[in-house]
Amino acid sequence: MTLRITALRIYPLKSCRGISLNEAALLASGLEHDREMMIVDSQGHFVTQRGDAVLATIAVALAGHSVTISCQGHSVTFNKQYTQAECNL
Question: Which of 3, 30, 54, 61 has a C-alpha 20 to 30 A away from that of 69?
Fold first, then answer.
């Protein structure tokens, strides 16, 4: 059996529209930028399409550290900020 990749997408904002790619960097954690952000509610619980189908209409664009989120003619752009969490295993 021969396997072939016919489409390549990442979903930087979990449960929102994906971004089609011609190529991607593969990291130990998976594809670069894939599912690195998520939407949470006021209690800090993550929100998914299973609970709110409108997420499928939210488009995401990446440009360096800049992220643009668009939906229904409105958009917002922000810079990603990373924090280093301490993990004791």
Answer: 30
Q: Are 58 and 13 in contact, with CB atoms under 8 Å apart?
A: yes
How confident is the model over 54-86, as pLDDT tens digits? Answer: 999 999 999 988 999 999 999 999 998 776 665
* Matching residue, tokens 């904002």: 13
* pTM listed for this prediction: 0.82
